[in-house]
Structures are given as structure tokens and as C-alpha cells.
Amino acid sequence: MAFSGLFPRLRTLPGVLRGIGLVCGLCFILAGLNCKARGLIFETQELTIETGPGKRIPISVELAQTDQQRTQGLMYRKSLADGKGMLFIFEKDQILSFWMKNTLIPLSIAFISVEGRILEIRDMEPGDMKPLYSSRSARYALEVPQAWFSRAGVVVGDILHLPGGVMPLASSGD
Fold this sequence. Notes:
The protein is α+β, with helices and mostly antiparallel strands and 174 residues long.
């Protein structure tokens, strides 16, 4: 049976256009699902930030340790609660660069030294494609809900206590 016999409505121009629109829409939806459903699993750690003598602020972080995890980050998340975040872990100290492609929520980012000292804190807006660079080399970056650092009393110079096992993992080569 010919293609037009299977889909008689497609013989007319409006039918063809509807068919093309349907196919394009389906491809767009499937492409979006593929990006969101990469099946990446992020390990979670309970960390603390020391903001002064004897004062520690708890934070639950997902660890972005592989290239794939660091690339996905917090994309497509619709919310992020106070006291939660994502810690990006890099192999060496370097100028770090972040953007907000496909990120739906406003975030604050802290660039952190290998010793855990917060070097700088910056705000980022949803969907902003302009790269945000650290002003100096850093080993880690911590993303949290925008303004959480100030609400929690966290400032530049405070210390993020990192467990010994927090390091980048080898990428799977996907």
C-alpha cells in the first residue's frame, strides 16, 4: 500500500503541513526528554560551612564529579530548597566558567579553593548564556538558591569543610 493510502489526509497541503508540524513537535519533545533523562546519578553529601569560630552551617550537596555531571549540573530543575546545592569538583585549580543554559532557577555560586576557602560569591540568572568566570583559579564551585549564602550568613573567606573522598571521578567517555 502506498504512503498516501495509509494516511489519506496527508494528500492535501494542510494535511501535509499538520503532519510535518506533528513530526517536528514530537522530535522537539523527544530531544528535550533525552537531555533531561540522561540517567545521571549524583552522590549526595552532607557538608558544613564554617562561618566563624564554632559556627557551622549545614548544607546538603549533590556532587558533580564527572564531565557529564558537571555539564548537566542543575539544568531543568524547577526548584532548589535552601540548604541544598550542587558542588562542582575539578581535577586542578583553574579559572572556572559557568553559564545558565537550560537552568530554570536563579542561583548563587561560590568559587572555592582547594583548601575549601570561599574565594568569591556571585549571582546567576536563569537561562543566561553569557559565561561567568571566576576572578581567580579555584578547585570547586558551589551552586545554591540565589541569595542563600547571604541568608545563611556565609561570606567570602568562610570555609567549606570537604570530606577526604571528594574528588573528581574518571569520565565514562559518553
